[in-house]
Design goal:
The chain is α+β, with helices and mostly antiparallel strands. It has helices at 44-66, 69-76, 91-107, 113-126, 157-175, 179-194, 209-220, 223-235, 265-282, 285-301, 333-349, 353-369, 404-412; strands at 31-32, 38-40, 385-387, 421-424, 427-430, 436-442, 445-453, 460-467, 471-478, 493-495, 503-507, 510-511, 516-517, 520-527, 531-537, 542-546, 556-561, 564-569, 580-581, 588-593, 600-612, 618-629, 640-642, 645-646. A hairpin with a 2-residue loop joins strand 4 and strand 5 (427-430). The longest helix is centred in the N-terminal third of the chain and has 23 residues, at 44-66. It is globular and about 75 Å long. The relative contact order is 0.10.
Length: 660
Amino acid sequence: MTSAPLAAGITAVMATMTLAPLPATPVDGVTPLAFDQVRLDDGFWASRIRVCREVTIPHCFKQCEETGRIDNFAIAAGLKQGTHTGAAYNDSDVYKIIEGAAYSLKSRPDPKLEPYLDGVIATITAAQQNDGYLFTYFTPDHADERFKHISPGPKHELYCMGHFIEAAVAHFKMTGKRTLLDAAVRLADHIDSVFGPGKRNNVPHHPEVESALIKLYQVSNQPRYLELARFFIDQRGHTDARPSVTFYGQDHLPLRQQSEIVGHAVRAMYNCVNLTALYQESGDPQLLAAARRLWESATQRKLYVTGGIGALGRGESFGNDYQLPNGSAYSETCAAIGLVFFAHRMWQIQPDAEYIDVLERALYNTVLDGVSLAGNEFFYPNKLLAAGEPGWGTARRSWYECACCPSNICRFIPAVPGYLYGQCGDIVYVNSFMAGTATFNTGHQTVSLTQQTAYPWDGSVTITVAPAAEADFTIKLRIPGWARNQPVPTDLYRNADAIQPTVSLTINGESQDIQLQKGYVALTRVWKQDDVIALNLAMPVRRVVASDKVADDAGRVALERGPVFYCFEGVDHKDKVFSLVVPDDAALAATFRADLLGGVAVITGQGTIATQQADGSVAGAATAITAVPYYAWCNRGAGQMQVWMPRALDKADPSPAAAK
């Protein structure tokens, strides 16, 4: 594999690949029920969405004001004097927050947020150049440097432009206003004038613009945007006539040939989203085959038990197979969000519960760990072990110089109800459980489903079915992997206890056989007004162990209850977390504490604490232990934390020191 000389100010490279016309055969898959068709009642997710609306989004907009991110647009537009401040890619944070604000306004109108958002949008669109170009780092300063820093030394123009287009599409769909969308069309047309067959053939250093162009195609019905997305996707890995982004940016092989997930974890996930999005529009089986291979590589050999991905801080990247360190885990919040995006796309194509099992694992653990309960502090990496010293990944911060994670949280949390349901013809999928009501159409029939549940703390779910008139259709109800003795849909992790959790299902009080099809039980009948489905998923405390191939977790156990993984914090154990042992025979029980961490189920029991004896030996003494949900750690101050606990004294530290 060769590349062109890497020279500063590289001139345009002409594309050499000739692409056949894209097949116009979109794939018929599952259509997710849009989040704005789901009204949540008070409960776990309604509370998190409210905090995002009332705290996180305003907080992040304020940070963008204070750090000059919004002023950069005003300066580029000539509305203010000054020069660009901050990182070249800072525009993207503003765009992601706009996307989240648009989602939030759709769910709950806000007389303060809407005019503020309109003002920010006016400033942004004023910064757009006459030819459609929009990137404040090179406008007005260094205008002659446009698109000369794709790679090496990327400034991430196309990444920012992709987030702008995504925000514009979301804003149009949520509000009906065209201001951003019209600007996005002008920008996409400008990109199309620069890149493509016979023009420049660089690929984005950070995949993002590809799926954004596909979304723009879907609302505009302009095939050139789909073709440009396909061009960028197909160019990746063909590096004879341009600088390579290397394996770090998934540019080491053509995408259809890739089998191992490598490089920067967020880039890798967005790249996989691009693959699946293009497959949905084209039906190209090679794209799906590659996506499936990359899915298996990520989830079967490189997935943290908390649903995090990306083991190495160096390059924010994947490590080797089974290389999953805990204290140095990177597990970036954005990467977990990307895994949710990827899993959801795969599920739309192939509605198998394995994808939702992984999605739920990431959602309730690593994604939620990325934002504090108060909504105004964040984790960028999500470690599984912390020594107690405040630092990178061990103390939450109100903002980051590279603020991709806080801004990504802004656009992700309001859209969570959109992962709950799906529809394919007369089949309705229920993927997970949140109190609230969803409304959809099956055939010529309007149907509502109303859930009552305290999930994830309680596995009791009641679903009231209300068709406008009697109707024959199928409801496919997911039975989560954690309720089937399968923490993840691979052998990477397994339950280490002999518990056989019970699952029961009734319709109008009549017991139903549970015959699973790809993790779902199919309920087909003529549904009537106020038919009631009652699902009961037992939620015992479960012990989970890792494959023997994961050296860092040898001799250790993690605790799970329902979809939630747990950790031990120093604040509950007098800063002696690393002396604790959770023996295999220790009795463990769960109790809901409304007064703790916003209301959580905690796990308590009798464990062992290792102590150093005068003769140098190590002895164990009984001690009370308490585990809290992993996502909620570091909300009572920075301190010790550990997910993977020793099962015997030989793995414990009798004189706790800095974690290794």
